[in-house]
Structures are given as C-alpha cells and as structure tokens.
Design a protein that fits this description.
The protein is mainly beta. Among the domains are: 70 residues, Immunoglobulin-like; 34 residues, no CATH class. A 4-stranded antiparallel sheet has the order 4-3-6-7, with no helix packed on it. A 3-stranded antiparallel sheet has the order 1-2-5, with no helix packed on it. Strands 8-9-10 form a 3-stranded antiparallel sheet, with no helix packed on it. It is flat.
C-alpha cells in the first residue's frame, strides 16, 4: 500500500474549512500588529524620545570674504565669496581715475564690460577685498584654428593613419566659418 506524501499539498487537497481558518488567523495577526502600534503606555516601546543631535553646537562656516575675478578680452566677471548673502550690495572698479559702481546680483556676482587701446590697470574693490588687473586691448578675438578628424578611433600596429584637417575661423557672431 502506497502512502501519499503529506507536503506539498495541492489546493484541491486542502479542506475549505482549513483555508478559512488560515485566512482568519492571518486577518487576526494583521489586526493585532496594528493594535500594538497604537497602544499607549508601557505596552509599547517609547518612540517619542528627543532626538540627540550628532553635534551639540552648530556654527556658521567661517568663510572669509574674498573677491574673485575672471577676465577675457571684452569683460570682467567678478564674484564675492563668503557666508552671507551679498545681494543688493555693490563693488567698485576704478580705471583711468574714473570709478564705476557694480551691483551684485543674487549669486553675489557682477559683470563689467570694457574696451581699452593699451594695457591699463583696473582696481576692483568690495569692502576690504581689493584686486588689481591689467586689462589688455582686444585684438583679433579668435585666431584661425585647425580641426582634425581621423577615420577611426583605434588603429592596429603598422596601420596607416588617415586624417583630414579643416582650417577655420570664427565670425563676428561666434560661428566657425571655413577660411578661403
């Protein structure tokens, strides 16, 4: 006489009454877990304790105020660093005895366009921070350039390198145009 294995059972082999009982136990278990989560007092773990910060005292960064300048042949871009918002304040530039006020924007930066015929010093100031630049006259902004293209990115040993070069310059709008 052969004995049928006890496990795994197919659904058709489990009595409907047993299935109902398992479902009722699952619902009861979920209800008990929900009730424990809302129980008051000592029956529940106390999760309302104050959060202890990692650092007991926080301090603002001690970033010094600094004036950073970037120059090209047409303009100077400046930025005032530091921990405070500088919006609405202004920096000054002095060149050839004339002083201009440069308002700072929301990023604590400014732009100043210039045109000089010879090397000219310009002094920028914000509070105690002072920087002096020597501005150069703008010549031809972009000299001609060559753009090289190879026929492939990787070559095997002793393969011949194939390439082409395009001679070009920028026009007044900044677009590349071929030299004739």
């Amino acid at each position: 006489m052969a004995v049928a294995p006890v496990w795994p059972l197919r659904r058709s082999q489990i009595a409907p009454r047993t299935l109902r009982m398992l479902a009722a136990l699952a619902v009861l278990g979920v209800a008990l877990l929900g009730a424990v989560a809302v129980l008051p007092g000592p029956m529940r773990a106390d999760r309302s304790r104050a959060i202890i910060p990692l650092f007991t005292k926080t301090e603002a960064a001690g970033n010094p105020t600094d004036l950073v300048l970037l120059v090209d042949e047409k303009k100077v871009v400046g930025w005032v660093s530091g921990a405070r918002d500088r919006r609405g304040q202004s920096a000054t530039v002095t060149m050839n005895g004339k002083t201009e006020t440069l308002p700072l924007d929301a990023r604590s930066s400014f732009q100043w366009s210039y045109a000089v015929n010879e090397a000219t010093p310009a002094r920028f100031q914000f509070g105690d921070a002072t920087e002096t630049l020597t501005l150069q006259p703008g010549g031809k902004a972009h000299p001609p350039s060559v753009f090289f293209v190879a026929d492939r990115s990787v070559y095997r040993p002793e393969q011949k390198l194939q390439f082409a070069g395009f001679l070009r310059e920028r026009d007044a709008a900044g677009r590349f145009t071929p030299l004739s």
